[in-house]
Design a protein that fits this description.
The chain is an alpha+beta fold. 39% of the residues lie in helices and 28% in strands. It is built from 4 helices and 6 strands; from the N terminus they run H-H-E-E-E-H-E-E-E-H. A 6-stranded antiparallel β-sheet has the order 3-2-1-6-5-4, with helices on both faces. A hairpin with a 5-residue loop joins strand 2 and strand 3. It is globular and about 40 Å long.
């Protein structure tokens, strides 16, 4: 069951980041942890908010877009609206930015510090409709634990 999978993953996140304070190091390890444990994905990583854009952070996968304006594409929309984006078919998403033509579905979860979006976790899959509400809930829980571990 996915809920059990995400419960286990969440416990790993809490243990891995206990006492950690370096955001970039933690993002690198979370990207690696998710890449090792999630099936049917082809990219996982972070975009960090800087001014009115997102800048590529630690990731696992092919070379990626370096800068994304806030409000553009799936990542920019998630950051601007402070809302997880669950996209069954990225080719149907208005303004989608194609960094990897092999990606067909995507989920993007905002990361917060002091109640403000500071980054997004972006996960792509070559499979259409790869992510569902259980993935959304599980990944939001993982990101929440990540935030609490790093920022209190």
């Amino acid at each position: 069951m996915k809920s059990e999978f995400y419960d286990t993953l969440n416990r790993q996140v809490l243990a891995l980041f206990e006492g950690e304070t370096d955001l970039v190091a933690a993002m690198a390890n979370l990207s690696a942890l998710l890449n090792e444990n999630l099936e049917q994905i082809n990219w996982v990583g972070f975009y960090i908010q800087r001014d009115e854009q997102l800048v590529l952070g630690p990731f696992q996968g092919k070379v990626a877009c370096v800068r994304i304006p806030l409000g553009r594409g799936v990542c920019g929309t998630a950051a601007a609206n402070d809302e997880t984006q669950l996209v069954d078919d990225v080719h149907q998403f208005a303004g989608h930015i194609a960094c990897d033509s092999a990606s067909n579905s995507e989920i993007v979860v905002p990361v917060h510090k002091d109640g403000k979006v500071i980054a997004v976790l972006d996960i792509d899959s070559p499979i259409l409709s790869r992510f569902d509400k259980e993935d959304k809930n599980g990944l939001e829980m993982v990101v929440s634990s990540f935030e609490k571990s790093l920022f209190g």
